[in-house]
From TrEMBL:
Family: Belongs to the proteasome subunit S3 family.
Taxonomic source organism: Cylindrodendrum hubeiense
UniProt biased composition (Basic and acidic residues): 20-31, 550-564
Protein name as annotated: PCI domain-containing protein
Keywords noted in UniProt: Proteasome
């Protein structure tokens, strides 16, 4: 028929489906071409025939193969990241933080750089430290002396300086462009003191982890001398960390404390000079850290009077970091407990345990402070809560103290002495052995109080037998002292030889519950005030806001004055000015 177009090339007509679109294209093509021969039509139709399914699958497979190969290659590149290169990049990334800390006079950036040390120290090696020093310090006289001291500490004193890593080692194609580029780099390549002190801290960390305590102490002495020559407020956080490692190195060098020949005694003049300088410069972090280190130093050698004089003649900074506050309160509580001032010691140790970080990295500090707190509570005549010993992180460490509390609570002198003999090494290692020996009188007082509550009248002979005392005269003396101290409310009949207890009244009729509630409220309010003081804000930010507001007000006054004088009208202002 003349109105129909051929459906195929003499073959069966193709049904509607996948090739429907191609059939329409072929029909349009045949109409536009006009009357051509069969050969031309076949060629035209051959051109528009879609590719076969096999070819599609092969091309798709090739494409997918290319994509999969590219993904595999990318995964291999990611897997081939060298940990040495990554560690070097992590160290160098902290230099920008130190630059911002100096430019903005903000210690928060220095603290961020110090926090990264815990991650970097896992991969520190002498080669990595030497590579960072070589890439950072130029080959000048001043920088070379500082860099050589750092390299000498890690045993890489022959490493070359002025070496650039990464893309900076590429050779420029145009030598005329290379010279000004290198020249400009030398001009602005200034190493701030914060950078080499930070690298010095990394050297200290490496020496401490590798247990090179003698070399670490010598290098720390060089760092402390360099810090004393620099008068920069931005070195506050870094210098605090330097003195911390300096003190730790000296504690691990023989002869150990409490020997008077120990290096911890020789380091005291350096720490006292650092404290004096920090107070004059108002370096809060260094001041708090050095005070804590001095207290620790005096306690290691049992110089309690000197530690007490230090506390009385210095003022711990109020806005110190929470970790240093917790340490200071712990050492202060230990000093007060040795001085028999148990009430003050209990307050300080309670605050120290509350301020201790909840993370596992500070678990040792929490356990040590809790052990001393338990002993102080026993010396005060109180029995610690049983829930303290049920904490998963405290149960194993506090087991000897749990046995001690059980003996004191019951008033069993035999179990008390047995516990001391069995766990004497643990108590000496914790530094609580001398305090625990004072508990013998408390055990006896507790036993007397338990008997006064259980019996309305009991003979001195029975008290002597139950408490395993030597004679009835000793029992009479102990009962009389307990009555005088207010431990028990009873009367002593010396002629008949017995103790008669008084009836116990209602404790809620006294002022004791109200005083306990008041103390808890005061503790919560003090914790809130200290939390507010511990918050850190950008320095001098309020001054910048006031300056911007003042400039805006001045511009508004000038514009209002010009409007009044007729120099400006509302159209010139764009409709944004609404008046004063």
């Amino acid at each position: 028929m003349p109105g129909k177009t051929p459906q195929g090339n003499g073959k069966k007509p193709v049904g509607s489906g996948v090739r429907k679109t191609k059939d329409v294209e072929m029909t349009d093509a045949s109409k536009t071409k006009g009357k051509k021969g069969a050969k031309d039509t076949d060629e035209e139709m051959t051109v528009v025939v879609p590719p076969s399914k096999a070819s599609k699958q092969s091309s798709k497979a090739d494409a997918e193969g290319d994509v999969s190969m590219d993904e595999d290659k990318a995964d291999e590149d990611e897997a081939k990241v060298d940990p040495v290169v990554q560690t070097v990049a992590d160290i160098k990334s902290n230099f920008a933080l130190l630059d911002r800390a100096v430019a903005l006079f903000d210690a928060r950036f220095s603290l961020r750089a110090l926090r990264s040390i815990s991650i970097i120290r896992k991969h520190l090696t002498p080669d990595i430290i030497a590579q960072v020093i070589s890439d950072t310090f130029p080959a000048t006289v001043a920088s070379g002396n500082i860099a050589k001291q750092l390299l000498l500490a890690v045993g890489r004193e022959n490493a070359p300086l002025g070496r650039q890593g990464g893309s900076e080692m590429e050779v420029d194609a145009d030598p005329s462009k290379a010279s000004p580029k290198n020249g400009s780099k030398k001009e602005h390549k200034d190493i701030i003191p914060e950078t080499d002190i930070f690298l010095g801290i990394l050297v200290q960390v490496y020496l401490f982890d590798s247990k090179q305590f003698q070399r670490g102490a010598e290098f720390s002495q060089y760092l402390s001398d360099r810090i004393q020559t620099l008068n920069r407020r931005t070195l506050d956080s870094l210098s605090a960390k330097v003195y911390f490692y300096y003190s730790i190195f000296c504690e691990h060098i023989a002869p150990l404390a409490p020997s008077p020949q120990s290096p911890v005694v020789a380091i005291r003049p350096t720490l006292l000079a650092a404290l004096r300088t920090a107070v004059l410069r108002k370096d809060v972090d260094t001041q708090a850290s050095v005070i804590v280190l001095l207290l620790r130093n005096y306690l290691l050698t049992s110089h309690i009077n000197q530690a007490d004089l230090l506390v009385s003649h210095t003022q711990f900074p109020e806005n110190a970091v929470n970790n240093q506050v917790a340490r200071f309160l712990y050492y202060l509580g230990r000093i007060r407990s040795i001085q028999l001032r148990y009430t003050e010691a209990h307050e300080h140790l309670t605050a120290a345990t509350r301020k201790a970080p909840s993370s596992n990295c500070a678990l040792g500090f929490s356990q040590t402070a809790t052990k001393l707190l338990l002993v102080v509570e026993l010396l005060m005549g109180d029995i610690p809560d049983r829930a303290t010993f049920r904490q998963p992180t405290m149960e194993v460490a506090l087991h000897p103290y749990f046995l001690l509390v059980q003996a004191v609570r019951v008033g069993n002198l035999e179990d008390f002495e047995t516990t001391i003999v069995d766990h004497a090494d643990t108590f000496r290692r914790d530094g609580t052995y001398s305090l625990i020996l004072r508990l013998r009188q408390n055990v006896i007082k507790t036993g007397i109080r338990m008997m006064s509550l259980s019996y309305s009248r009991i003979s001195l002979r029975d008290i002597c037998i139950r408490l395993q005392l030597g004679s009835e005269e000793s029992a009479e003396y102990i009962v009389a002292k307990a009555i005088r101290d207010g431990v028990i409310e009873a009367t002593l009949d010396r002629e008949r030889g017995f103790m008669k207890s008084k009836e116990v009244g209602d404790v809620y009729a006294t002022r004791e519950p109200g005083e306990a509630f008041h103390d808890r409220i005061q503790a919560c309010l003090a914790l809130h005030d200290e939390s507010v003081k511990a918050m850190r804000f950008p320095m001098n930010q309020h001054r910048l806001e006031l300056k911007n507001a003042q400039e805006a007000r001045e511009r508004e006054r000038e514009m209002a004055k010009e409007i009044q004088e007729g120099d400006l009208d509302d159209d010139d202002l764009g409709g944004d000015f609404d008046g004063m």
